Amino acid sequence: MPEAQEEEYYAIVNELPEHVNIINWAINDYFLSFNTEICKRFIIDHFNSNEKYINPCIGIVKYSHYLLYKEHAIHNESLQCKGLNYWLKNQIKDIQDNECDTSEFYEKLNLHDQANSYGINRCMKEMKDINDVLFQNLQKIYDLHDNLNEYMTKYMIEDETCCENASTCVDIYDSIITQCKTQPKSSMCNALKKFKDEYNAQMQKDIKCINVKKKLLYPEREETTVDKQREGEAHALSYRQSEQQEEDLSHTASPGLIPTKFNIIIISVVSLVVSMILFILYKFTTFRSILKNSIRKTKYMWKHQNEEYNELLLQEHESKNTEFGERLYSIAYHTS
């Protein structure tokens, strides 16, 4: 029998409560009257008249008949049928000495309705066996979304019991999220992460449930901290290795590839030697007198140039004063 893949069910688990509610409504309230004879014959033929199988049979027949009407069909028929498969698993899982899973039960019922009077074959492709472990985890996440939907509905009509639903969300989430410490990227954990985001977004606006946790956390944050620590250790190790390589290079380098620190040492030594040589030349040789004479000559040249420059400025100034005096005399003469 075909087995359901966990990825496809975890991807839609947030939408299952809505579809299961529609299935229950179609079974209990949509039909004013319904002939259950087909299911009575079915359990006699296949389950030795075990009455515990009659409600699953009636549910499938009614919902399949309900989907025959175009106004009830949605674009995503696969989602409707997965919802029916989940509902059926929940109906038959606790039947004592149950001998079949959802796909086998559905196939037997489809064959029983050979005329296809109720459209049972509509969901045949999506009827796949959901193993018990997968169903248990799906059921917990289903309950999370179901309680969150209840909280939102009650909150809008100011029903104070909405806080009980929010508190239930926290309890269920905390009980299952521990599994994601070792498998944070699994399909189940991705579904929990999606719920966490929806819950946190809703509770940010909450002003009623003051005693209920407003923000759910995800183990990925802890993992991120560990990753950063590991990354820091890796950088430190890389730095130590780089230093070691540089030290090794200093022992084996050729004259043309001397490391930087040796260049600094050589420059310092050369500067010191040059300074000592200049000091000796200045102190104990004629270099001192030559230097002094050169300095005196330079000073004399600068002094002589300054005197010539000052004399030139003085001559210019006297010339301007003479011209100005003559101009004043000329003005006075013409006025008289």
Detailed description of the structure:
There is one protein chain. It contains twelve helices and no strands. It has helices spanning 6-10, 16-30, 37-46, 54-67, 77-92, 102-112, 132-156, 162-176, 187-203, 220-252, 260-284, 287-335. The protein has three domains: 6-130, no CATH class; 136-221; 261-336. With 336 residues, the chain is mainly alpha-helical. Residues 223-234 have a biased composition (Basic and acidic residues).
Short description:
With 336 residues, this protein is an all-alpha fold. The chain folds into three domains: 6-130, no CATH class; 136-221; 261-336.
Detail the poorly predicted runs: 222-227, 252-258, 327-336
What's the total count of β strands? 0
Rounded to the nearest angstrom, the radius of gyration is: 48 Å
- The tally of structural domains comes to 3
Question: Could you give the order of the helices and strands?
Answer: HHHHHHHHHHHH
**How large a portion of the residues is in β-strands, by DSSP E?**
under 5%
* Tally of individual helices: 12
Shape estimate? elongated
Biggest sheet details: none
* Nearest-integer average pLDDT: 80
Helix content: 55-70%
Distance between the termini: 138 Å
What class would the helix/strand composition place it in?
mainly alpha
Pfam families: Plasmodium_Vir
Protein name: PIR Superfamily Protein
Region (Disordered): 223-252
Keywords: Membrane, Transmembrane, Transmembrane helix
